[in-house]
Design goal:
The structure is a single chain. With 130 residues, the chain is an alpha/beta fold. The chain has a single domain, classed as Barwin-like endoglucanases, CATH 2.40.40.10. The protein has three helices and six strands; from the N terminus they run H-E-E-H-E-E-E-H-E. The longest helix has 19 residues. The chain starts with a helix and ends with a strand. The structure holds 2-acetamido-2-deoxy-beta-D-glucopyranose (NAG). 2-acetamido-2-deoxy-beta-D-glucopyranose (NAG) binds next to strand 3 and strand 4.
């Protein structure tokens, strides 16, 4: 009986995961320097617009190679000059593992700088799988 409940719970989680695809979710972003080897073994570097996914998105690596539209919403605290410059499409090429990782997505410098004033180190984002 317990095994059955576990399976049902897993099915519900998978369903929720599927439902959330395509819907914008709130999160935060910092930047990092992409490196090799990455935790996404079969994904080729698609160019400079890349990101590392936190454990909340990692899904055992199923996220590797997926593309996200990341939109800057502003700095985490008020008082800083509104820095946002729109959205960027990034491909997940690595993992940003807890506890070191304290953000939803780590963006490459070119991707981070495209959507925000580069003087900031952390921003609030909306992200959507595309
Ligand atoms: C990314 O999302 C933003 C905000 O929803 C939207 O304005 C923009 O058109 C999207 N870009 C792409 C390429 O889908």
């Amino acid at each position: 009986m317990e095994g059955m409940e576990t399976r049902v719970l897993m099915a519900v989680c998978i369903l929720l995961g599927l439902v959330s695809v395509g819907v914008a979710a709130p999160g935060s972003a910092t930047f990092y320097k992409p490196h090799q080897p990455s935790d996404c073994h079969r994904v080729k570097e698609p160019g400079p617009m890349v990101a590392a996914a936190s454990d909340s998105l990692w899904s055992n690596g199923a996220i590797c190679g997926k593309k996200f539209n990341v939109t800057c919403l502003g700095p985490p605290s008020t008082g800083e000059k509104f820095p946002c410059k729109g959205s960027v499409i990034v491909t997940v090429v690595d993992r940003c593992a807890s506890p070191r990782c304290e953000t939803t997505l780590e963006l490459s410098r070119p991707a981070f700088n495209k959507i925000v004033n580069p003087k900031l180190v952390k921003i609030i984002i909306d992200y959507k799988m595309v």
